[in-house]
Amino acid sequence: MRNALLFVLILLSSGSYAQEKVEKLARVGGKGIFVFCSNKIPKQNSSFKSIRIERKSEKDSEFKKVADLAAVSSPKEFKKRFNSSQEMFPYPTELNIFNLDSIWNISEKSPTIKSLGIAGGSLSVLAGFNMLWLDKDVKEGVSYEYRVVGVGEPVLESLPIKFEKIAPGKGLSFIKANYNQTANKIEIHTYSTDRDKPVYIETWRSENKGPFIKVLSTFTFALKNDSVKYRTTDATTTAFQVYHYALKSWDVYGNLFPVSDTAFITALDYLQMPLPHKISAIGDSSGKSIKINWTQQAAGALKMMTLYRSRNSVNDFEPIAVLSAEQNEYVDEQVEPVTPYFYYFEVVFKASDAPKRTASFAANFWDKSKPEIPQYLETQITDKL
Questions:
Q1: pLDDT tens digits, residue range 176-190?
Q2: DSSP run (H or E) holding 259
């Protein structure tokens, strides 16, 4: 899936080389400047056997040769160069999806990039045919021009291009994040409208406000008009844990986008978020109070918990205490004997601002203290009946 995106984005951005000054002949990458060589594949048994690349910096008056790229002589050499292309990029590439023997055989019959179909949009395939060169000897902030000379082919010359390690665009923007309760995985939905869109996404996660660490994840994409929507999946989550996510992404040339904003989510479906359970409410005659105990799972997922009370089970509930997530006991001393009190908990989770409440429960207490014996009694006798 990642390589399919890579192919689509390259094909959309690639242009014909049949012009005097080629805008996309050279492209800035994370490790240098990429130079594309030709629409034709050089072959040793043809007149087009090699490619010469010349370069001129903003300080040079003339072009100077910087590389000679000979035609690849065998399938073995093609595979070797193809596999070595990983060194051109700062992100891992999936190379095992290609049938290299088939690609080589097609190139023998029709030595053009177009004949390779979607494989012709792979930078690794181009590198395998020695048709993509990475200029690593470039300096930050310096502009370069390139000239590509092939025997029997038009001379191609690039527009000036400055090597700058700057972000190619805004990068990923968040749409939403949700927890898949059944599969126990978190899905992060993002999109990009940049010209050069991300082709590789790296997921960084913080657990319960700890440091961010890189986690194993996968991503899929969908094209929509001028944007690409991504779904990044983290299947290494643990239920009831609170996570922060940040996404790093690169374009096809290895340029790093700005790190995304962070997404905050709990590995818990809202409908299944655990409320206080094993609740007991017992009247304490000696203390003239009602003692409430409960058990709370996933305390780290709670933002706030409030205890409400009323003298009837239908309405007039008022908050009487804001409780911490770690708390499991509350003593209500503002009560009167032989009076039923009704309670419920309202919980707000970190992953959602929508509160959830428990069913109501009731308790009262009897004042069993002995009545005080009157002392210093006085009597008064009158003649009135």
A1: 888 887 788 999 999
A2: none
